[in-house]
């Protein structure tokens, strides 16, 4: 929403403030902060945030780490990060490479299941355009899907 209204810089600042108040980040704000940093042309900052959560398997963190590394031109580390990201949700790559795919029907329940196609679709809806705009990002996905 912040990106649609040109308020991404403000939203990024707010996510950083929230992370400062709640470093354990039980709300998942870190994923948005990582992607806001990349979108604002600050992939080093994005990577720094991701590195603060080294064992994190949140889909936004794992794929955000890979995207930040692609942005920085570090293909070897990006490939390794993508392998880890696929462990968090293997469906994301397919939806990023094939945007024409129909999203799955969301089952009724308390939330989105980690690693599910639904989670992948939500990630791609939020951040797929960023992957398409970072030079080399889609190429990395294609290499990793072979």
How is this structure best described in words?
With 146 residues, this protein is an all-alpha fold. Helices cover 64% and strands 0% of the residues. The protein has eight helices and no strands. The chain starts with 7 loop residues before the first helix and ends with a helix.
User: What's the β-strand tally?
Assistant: 0
Give the distance, in angstroms, between the N- and C-terminal Cα atoms. Answer: 34 Å
Based on helices, strands and strand pairing, what is the structural class?
Answer: mainly alpha
pLDDT below 50 for ≥5 consecutive residues: which ranges? none
**Shape designation:** globular
Rounded to an integer in angstroms, the radius of gyration calculated over CA atoms is 14 Å
Whole-number mean pLDDT: 90
SSE sequence, one letter per element:
HHHHHHHH
Enumerate how many helices there are, as a single number: 8
Largest sheet: none
Beta strand %:
under 5%
State the share of residues found in helices, binned by percent.
55-70%
What is the fold's blueprint, element by element?
Blueprint: H1 8-21, H2 29-39, H3 43-51, H4 59-71, H5 75-88, H6 91-97, H7 117-133, H8 137-144
List keywords for this structure.
0% strand, 146 residues, 8 helices, globular, single chain, mainly alpha
Q: Short summary of the structure?
A:
The longest helix is centred in the C-terminal third of the chain and has 17 residues, at 117-133. Helix content is 64%, strand content 0%.
